[in-house]
Amino acid sequence: MSIHGLLAADFVLNPPAESWIKVIPTIDEFNSIPFFWPPEAQRLLPGTAKRLLEKQQSNFGRDWKHLQSAYPHVPSEDYMHAWFVVSSRAFYQETQQTLLYPWHDRLAMLPVADLFNHASVGCKVSYCAESYDIVADREYGKGDEVCTCYGEHSNNFLLAEYGFLLQNNANDLFDPDDLISSELSPEETALLKQMKTLAALDQLCGPATSDKGRVESTPGAIDNVLLQKLLAKFLEEIKGCRQKVLALDDGKKGYRQLLLQRWDQIDELVRRAIPLSLPSSGPEST
């Protein structure tokens, strides 16, 4: 059983004191997380978010199977609630015990610290095996929201894991795999593979851009005409996804608006990529 699953088991088998229960979200408050959406809405997630959801479903299923075999009296919904309390509030922590687990499962619960929301810029966080330190990055007044940065995450990750999107996310990116069902020619498939390679290098080494923000590459390395056609195809598919989302009836649960917002963000990212894909040229002749 994962540390995530064990923390959730402890939560459901040994409920916290009443004073803490008041600050813990109910299961209904997790409705913005795609795990709790109906299948027809989950199918309209961008590809990256959908794969994160599928991994989440697999991890929960594995942990639930372990718990059910030992404590068959625990209702599935109670454990699911506990599992997402941990998922949305646990912190990465390295101790002798957690280092025995994969890095993504080195988790600890930190009461009070889990009340901080996420922002691209926030309080400075550091930790050791014995403690966590959260230091204010500026002076805060009474009533001000105090945030920390959960990490350099794209909006696909934030949506799948936490159920929210940032309006201006410097770490957001367009992943060609976000598109659901593009039928590509062999040439387009090869170009897509090249785009993914460049994107991976960009993440590892930082963007190689000129002072105008144009992505630089070896001359002729990318077929810009084909790239323009491919990006235009992506825009058409985004349009189709939006139409399917608009046809959903979410009963005021909010997932339709989140899907629309995410596809609008991806549309904007693709449109930004189109000018960058154009070859550099001198002033137009008149």
UniProtKB/TrEMBL annotation:
Classification via InterPro entries: SET_dom_sf (IPR046341), SETD3_SETD6_MTase (IPR050600)
GO biological process: methylation
Gene Ontology molecular function: any one: protein-lysine N-methyltransferase activity
Leader sequence residues: none
Tagged with keyword Transferase: yes
Record keywords, A-Z: Methyltransferase, Transferase
Protein's UniProt name: Ribosomal lysine N-methyltransferase set11
